[in-house]
Every structure is written in structure tokens, then in C-alpha cells.
Amino acid sequence: HDPAGLARSKRRRLGRGAEGRMQSDSAEGCCARAGKTDVVRQIMRSVLLACVWLLPSSKGRELRRPAFLRTSIADSKGGGVRFRPLSPLRKVSSRLRSPLRPLCRSRLNSLEEGTSAATAERTAVGVSPSQANGAPYAAAAPTTRVDGDIEAKGKGVAWYPEWSSDRAIEHITTDVSMTDLVSLCRRRGFVFQSSEIYNGMNGFWDYGPLGVEVHRNIKNRWWDKMVREREDIVGLDCSIIMAPKTWEASGHVGGFSDPMIDCKESKMRYRADQLYFARVELESGELLGYISMLDGDNNEAHAKKLVKTLMKKADVKGDTKPLELKDATQAAPEEIPLIPSPATGIPGSLTPPREFNLMFETSVGALSDAASKAYLRPETAQGIFVNFKNVAQTSRVKVPFGIAQIGKAFRNEINPRNFIFRSREFEQMEIEYFIPPDEDAWPEYYKQWIGESWDWLKSIGLREDLMSYDVHQKCDLAHYARACTDIIFKFPFGESELMGIAARGDFDLSQHEKTSGKSMEYFDSDPNAADKRRYVPHVIEPSLGVDRLFLAVMVSAYVEEKVDGEKRTYLKFHPSLAPYKAAVLPLVKNKPELVSKARGIFEKLKRRYSVFWDASGSIGRRYRRADEVGVPFAITVDFDSLQDDSVTVRDRDSCEQTRMKISDLYPFLTQQIDPW
Q1: For residues 531 and 512, what is the distance between their CA atoms, to the nearest angstrom?
Q2: Would you say 63 and 57 are in contact if contact means Cβ atoms under 8 Å apart?
Q3: Are both 345 and 366 inside the same structural domain?
């Protein structure tokens, strides 16, 4: 075992071709005779691997792998790293530019044809060069994924494992912090702060090139499921600014408000129902003071920390009475001066709660006076209610039927927070489903919409383990509601409402009928009805915020796994929601014929699907970039594509790859994406 001798042997091998391979075989025999121990063989393999992969490539120089390297790797039983089949007589600069990576590196099946006789012999007898434990080579007879018509026609899609069918996943997590999620959205172009170059505006966000695609896909999926696939629901698109009397009739002008508290020291404003306080008393009854905090994921744990801090400042030891957390709307007037501000920790700086109207005001016309006052709509529902008669008369629909709308809404939130979860400009997807005023029937419609809403959220990829129900108690219901159930989602900042399903009764239509003087009655002319009658329909309302759902989709899709010591982060988007359905990647960008072939595939696919082009960097880095933005499939065009019109298709989630004909790409993507 002489490193200097091995180096000289390698130099001779690089210069003499076949003679070098003979010398390497001799070197293998010398090493075996000298050591024949696993330790020596591991050292030899490591040294030679380093020499091979670190050797700089130059024009006209071909790296020829020695037989010793091939056979030693094939016989390897340790190391924990699985290697792809080796290929001699290939230029490093054109085929294997990037170093080996233990996770998701490109398996170029086209290299098989150049594999040495020694490796081919081992494969023939069932020994895999890519398996460290010497088990039978499963990939020698690739399995065929069942892909419907493709396989039925004899064009089965052969799926090869990237390393092996059981990658050594050391750790996988689907939890993500808000900091990491916001960073990912900003870095990859999903969401930007609005007016960022002017330091932004709190509560306003812009969707970037990738975010707008996911945002649009969410709306399209909802519209397809709730409107196009149903005969009893029609669509509507109302104006953002409506007659001011609309909001007077609905109660928004007089009652659409939140309780607000100001901090006179920091100039911060808080929603009083989201600011919690507690009285801290010792067991003896002595009052230590008050603590305060904003509503969060674990209020009790936070409160205990604040109590410890308060006792430390007061230099008091002992036990305290159980804490009773209340929101600031429950504070007595004499308690307000004793509650410290969450911003400063100083008592006496908070103002008493007062109502703050959430409506955005504007003016219509040339003059700005009381007569020209108007509002930006705080919800899309009222536009549906005022158009109820128009839709019923023109669409020839019969109760029960629904009207769906997707549109912008605006609320002057006191304290917008948690990224896009609570903002001042947002988008809603709402259905007003009109039903007969039957006391026995409305609960069934109500339960049906709860179930359908839950199932649809699951169908687009939301994690069911992060979802739950919250059934409102009668004391918590709005004055017009008969029942309300929220679908709760566990966001990184805590559990909060994602979607609401409310039984609104006939409150809205009756109010508009009373204020406008126009009848909102529906004439039931059903021939099967016992008696024909006129009535004001009742309403079941499934309401969902697109921006909150976007955030829930991002949280559900986030996956971080560690395999063989390397970390991979990817977004496991449902195929129908992914911003791009496929990435087209030429293996190298300095070969015009290769780029032209890949470009032709890209131009054809983009006529139907959102596809993106990436030709810069190593193939491994491009795979990672595609993974991080949630692209389901990566299509690699290599040198064999020029000969046999085939490409390598890599799956985002499993990292598995398959070799398929270019002519099969379109039906493959159709079967993988369109059924959703």
C-alpha cells in the first residue's frame, strides 16, 4: 500500500489508456496481497474516489475508471453511501460534472451502455453496484408503474429508484416556523411585502410569480368543484363599491367593529379581545400586580413565565393563586390603569376599550362630502343577497340553489398580523345557498355543507391532522345566525379559523327587503309541493378566505427530510395546485443540439401546462430548486435523448426516476395532473 506508487500508477493510467487499466488491476492484486482487510480497502476506495472526483477536467482529456475502482465499489459492504452504476470512457466535463451527492442525484440511465464488462457481469448474476449490502439488484428488472391506458397499450412507464427503493431517511419533519415559511415565500417569489421599496404597508401583500399561480389554482379548483360540477350553483361577480344603504341594511355601518385599546407610550393599537390579562395574588391574598400578553399558541405557559418575572422583580417567593386569564373587554374600569402594556410592560399606559369600525371609507364623485361617502366592501356576501331576485329570475334555478362568488374584500384591521393570515385586503370565496324555511330541513343542509367543505379541503392536500372543528355555542353566535361551525387549522402561530359554515336564516334578505322596499320573496312553483307558496328563503353560507387557505396549503406542503446526512426541503403541493407542473432541464447548456431538443419539449408542453425552463447550474442544484418550489416532475434531456428520443422524468416526492419516450410525456402528465 504505497500512496506515492498509486499516484504514479494513476498518472500512467491516464496517459496510456488500456495499459493503465492493466496496471490498475495489478495494483488491486498488490493491495489485496498486502492487506486484504476491510480497513485497508475502505482507505483505498476513499483515496481513489477523492482522486477521481477532484481531478480537474480539461478539453480532450478522458477519465477512465480503473477496474479496481469498479469492483471495489461493487463489493463494498460499508460506508452507508449507495453509488450509481459506474461508467468508464466518459468525459467528466460533459457527463458527470457535479460530484456525487448521497441524496437525489441524477441517475443517468444512458450511461449503462458504457459500463465495463466487469460491472455488466455482476449485474447479470444479480449483484447491484448501487446496493451496499450486496442484495439482489432489483433495478435490473425495473418495475412498471400502473398508469392506465399507457400500460394497457404496452407502453409501460418503467420507474427506477434514484438510489434504491428504500432511501435511508434519517429524519423527516413537516413542521415549519413562521420565520422559515415567510423567508421561503420571499426568497422563492411566492409573496412579497406590498410597496416594499417604500418600507411597505402593514396588512398589505403582493403575490409573486409563483404565488399568483398557486393562488389562481386554488380559486380554479374551488370554482370547478363548487360551481361547474354542480347544477344547483351559479356564479356571480359583484362590484367592490355598492350603494351605502346596502351596508346600513346589513348592519355593517352601525355594528361592524372591533374593540380597540391604545398604548399611549408605544402608540401601538390592540384588539381588546386579543389582549389577555390576569391578576397575580399570593396564597396569602397579597396582590403582586397584573400581567398582560397578546393571544398566542400557548397562553398558559407564557403567563407562568410572566408571573415568575413579576415575582423576581418584587423579590417575593412562594406560591400564587391559580391564574384566571381574561381578555381586556372583561376588565373592570378600575383595573385598566393596573394592567401593563404588552409593548412596554408599564402599567397605566393602556386606554379603556372602545369600538373601532372596520369599514374602509371612500368618496364617489367630484366632491368629498357626506352625500358622496361610500365604502369598500368588507365581505362579498351582500352583493349576492341584493342580486338574489336577478339571479333567480334569469337563471331559471329553483330553491334550493346557491350563488357563488370570488372577490376582494377590505377590512381596516386594528392589528394585522401573522403574515397573510390577517390582512386589510384579502380575497374571499363564498356561497350563499338558499333553502326553504323548513325547520326540519335546514339542519340537514347545514351538516351537508360542513361535510362537503371538509372533504374539499382534504382533496387539495390539506393535512387532516392539522384540521379540526369548532362548533359555536348559542351564546357565541351572531344575532342573525342559527348555527355556525368553523373549520380550524393549526398554523405555526397556533390554531385559528380557516373556514366558516353558518346558518344565517332569513336575516339578510329580510333586512334588504325592509330597507329597499323591494320584495325578496320566492314563489315556489314545484309541482310536487303540497301547496304553492311564497317565502323569503333561508341561507346556508360556506365562507372561505383564499389568503388563509394559501397559507394553510403552504404549511401542509412543507416537508424537510434528512437523508444520508443531507437536508432536502421541498413543497409537496397537490399536483393541481403546483405553480409549475413540470421543469424541463437540458443536462448541459453548452451543447446547442441538446438545448434545442429540450427547448422543443418545453414549447410543446407549455401550450397546456405551466412549465418552466432551467438550464443553469448542475443538474443536482436544478433538481433542488424545482423541489423547493413544489414542481411535481423534472424532465431531463441528456445525450441519449438525441439518439432514442427518450428523457428522464424525476418524481419530486420520492426522487424516483423513469426513462420514457418523449411521445409519452404528454399522456403521462395528463394522467398525473388532469384527473385532479
Answers
A1: 27
A2: yes
A3: no
Q: Which residues of 455-465 are buried (b: 16+ CB within 10 A; e: fewer)?
A: ebbeebbbbee
* SS3 track for 512-558: HHHHHCCCCCEEECCCCCCCCEEECCEEEEEEEEHHHHHHHHHHHHE
How confident is the model at residue 54, as a pLDDT?
52
310 and 229, same structural domain?
A: no
Give me the pLDDT at residue 277, please.
94
Report the pLDDT value the prediction gives residue 38, as an integer from 0 to 100: 63
Q: How far apart are CA 516 and CA 520, in angstroms?
A: 10
Q: At what angle do helices 3-16 and 18-34 cross, to 10 degrees?
A: 160
> What's the half-sphere exposure (Cβ side, CA atoms, 13 Å) at 82?
25
Domains contained in the chain, number: 3
Amino acid at 122: R
Beta-bridge mates of residue 172: 561
Q: Give me the domain span that covers residue 27.
A: 3-142
Q: Which three cell numbers stand for residue 485?
A: 361551525
With CA atoms as reference, report the closest residue to 500 among 471, 538, 521.
471
Q: What does the radius of gyration of the chain's CA atoms come to, in whole angstroms?
A: 33
Chosen domain end from 356, 375, 398: 356
Question: Which of 323, 356, 389 is the C-terminal boundary of a domain?
Answer: 356
- Residue 676's pLDDT is 57
pLDDT at 40: 64
% of the chain residues with pLDDT over 70: 73
Domain assignment present for 511: yes
Phi, psi of 449 (to 5 degrees): -75, -30
Q: What percent of the chain has pLDDT over 90?
A: 55
Task: Please confirm whether the linkage preceding 342 is cis (ω < 30° from 0).
Answer: no
pLDDT at 392 over 60: yes
pLDDT value at 33 more than 50: no
CB 470 within 8 A of CB 497: yes
Residue 15 lies in a domain: yes
* CA 417 to chain CA mean position, Å: 19
Choose among 567, 492, 463: nearest CA to 171. Answer: 567
Among 142, 144, 83, 93, CA closest to 115: 83
Between the CA of residue 213 and those of 209, 218, 580, what are the distances in Å?
7, 9, 8
Mean pLDDT along residues 288-295? 91
566-605 core/surface letters (b: 16 or more CB in 10 A; e: else) = eebebbbbbbbbbbbbbbbbbbbeebeebbebbeebbeeb
Q: Is the pLDDT of residue 70 over 80?
A: no
State the pLDDT confidence band at 50, using cuts at 50, 70 and 90. low
Section 559-563 average pLDDT: 86
The H-or-E segment that residue 429 falls in is strand 425-435
Query: Across residues 460-466, what is the average pLDDT?
Result: 95
Given a contact cutoff of 8 angstroms between Cβ atoms, the answer to whether 592 and 656 are in contact is: no
183 domain residue, yes or no: no
Instruction: Kindly state whether residue 454 falls inside one of the protein's structural domains.
Output: yes
pLDDT tens track for 135-154: 322 332 333 332 333 232 23
For residue 43, give every residue at least 6 positions away whose Cβ sits within 8 Å of its Cβ, in sequence order, or none: 1
- Looking up cell 443531507, which residue turns up? 566
Instruction: Summarize the confidence of residues 549-574 as an average pLDDT.
Output: 91
Same domain, 449 and 536: yes
Q: Which residues pair with 145 in a beta bridge?
A: 157
